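Try this one yourself first.
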């Protein structure tokens, strides 16, 4: 049921707008790191959704998907498993195309419901890692080093 690497790349290439549900203004949270990457490295228009935060990285934060300034192509979810059915309901209601669950989030019944509603579903994958994988920015530590070389580094002793 999970999309292949090529299908994930197609999803990312078609995407123009991303809503990050569960975005955090805490720099130690994964959603903050992903948000920083999306804003600095991708061409996506990025909207943040969190009812308890007003601003993240100088951008407004919306209390729900229904209050976004447009329809997101992709909804990237950073929420606890118990919250996922409600997030899926909102995703379907706004007319998004892709329901993307971050690392550690997977629910086959929820994925089947999303697919039945016409959504593409990606589970247990990081949007930042997948984008970097397909667009040349992935390094062993997950960062874009900006260095392109086939030369191996010498081993430290």
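Now uncover the answer:
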């Amino acid at each position: 049921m999970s999309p292949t690497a090529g299908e994930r790349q197609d999803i990312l290439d078609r995407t123009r707008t991303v809503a990050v549900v569960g975005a955090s203004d805490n720099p130690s949270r994964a959603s903050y790191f992903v948000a920083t990457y999306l804003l600095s490295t991708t061409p996506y228009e990025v909207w943040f959704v969190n009812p308890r935060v007003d601003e993240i990285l100088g951008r407004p934060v919306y209390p729900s998907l229904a209050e976004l300034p447009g329809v997101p192509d992709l909804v990237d979810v950073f929420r606890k498993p118990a919250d996922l059915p409600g997030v899926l309901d909102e995703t379907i209601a706004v007319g998004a195309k892709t329901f993307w669950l971050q690392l550690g989030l997977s629910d086959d019944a929820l994925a089947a419901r999303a697919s039945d509603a016409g959504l593409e579903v990606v589970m247990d994958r990081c949007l930042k890692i997948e984008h970097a994988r397909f667009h040349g920015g992935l390094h062993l530590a997950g960062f874009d080093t900006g260095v392109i070389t086939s030369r191996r580094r010498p081993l430290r002793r």
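Discussion: The CA atoms of residues 58 and 145 lie 25 Å apart. DSSP finds five helices and seven strands in the chain.
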